[in-house]
C-alpha cells in the first residue's frame, strides 16, 4: 500500500478515502504533516518596523520521503533569510499546515477556514540538525523538493527541524483540540 499512498502524496492528490477520521486528531495531525509540502512559519520579528511582532512566512517542509513519515517537519534554511534571522534571536516558532494545499478541500468544497479542511498548528523550537538526522532531512526534503539541490551553495544552507512542543488540530466542528507530542509521534498517518 505504501507506494500508492506515496504517489498520491507526491501528486498532491489527496482523496477523501485517505484522510483519517476527523475525530482521530493525533493521526490527523500526522497525516497533515506528512501530506503538506509547505507551511507558514511564524517567528517573532527582529526587523523594523515590525520588530517584536508576529511574522509568518512560507517554508518548504518534509517529514520524510512520501512513503516514510517521521512526523518531524524538516526545513532547509539559510541565515540570509529574513525569518531565519528572527530564529537566531528567538528560535521559538509556530508552523501552520493545512490540507487546503492538497486537492482534498477543493474536491469536498471545504473552505480553508472550515475545520473539516483539516489544519494543524505546531509550536516549538527550530533547531539545526546534524549527522544522521541531517542525512535523513536531506533525503526527506530533496526527494519532495527537487529544486533544493540547485539552490546557491554560497548561501550556506543547513538542515533544521521544528522540535515540536505543542500541537493544536482543527479537523471537526466543536472546537480546536490539543494533541500531545507523545500521542502525535505514536500515531501513524495511514
Ligand atoms: C472516532 O469515532 C468513531 C465512530 O464514531 C469511534 O468508533 C472511534 O472510537 C472514535 N475515535 C476516537 C479516537 O475518538
Ligand atoms: C524511515 O524513517 C525513519 C525515521 O522516521 C528512519 O529511521 C528510516 O531509516 C526510514 N526508512 C527508510 C526506508 O528510509
Ligand atoms: C521559548 O518558549 C519557551 C517555552 O514556551 C519559553 O520558556 C522561552 O522563554 C521562549 N524563548 C524565548 C527566547 O522567548
Ligand atoms: C526538543 O525539545 C525538548 C523540550 O524542549 C528537549 O527536551 C529536547 O532535547 C529537544 N530535542 C532535540 C532532539 O533537540
Structure explained in plain terms:
This protein has one domain: Pnp Oxidase, Chain A, CATH 2.30.110. It starts with a helix and ends with a helix. The chain is globular and about 45 Å long. The protein is α+β, with helices and mostly antiparallel strands. The protein has six helices and seven strands. The longest helix is centred in the last third of the chain and has 14 residues, at 131-144. Strands 1, 2, 3, 4, 5, 6 and 7 form a seven-stranded antiparallel sheet that branches. The model has no long low-confidence stretch (mean pLDDT 94). Residues 127, 163, 165 line the site of one 2-acetamido-2-deoxy-beta-D-glucopyranose (NAG). One 2-acetamido-2-deoxy-beta-D-glucopyranose binds at residues 64, 68, 70.
Strand content: 25-35%
- What is the straight-line distance between the termini? 10 Å
SSE string, helices as H and strands as E = HHEEEHEHEHEEH
CATH class: Mainly Beta
Q: Could you name the CATH topology?
A: Pnp Oxidase, Chain A
Could you provide a short overview of the structure?
The chain is of the alpha+beta class. It is built from 6 helices and 7 strands. The protein has one domain (4-186): Electron Transport, Fmn-binding Protein, Chain A (Pnp Oxidase, Chain A), CATH 2.30.110.10.
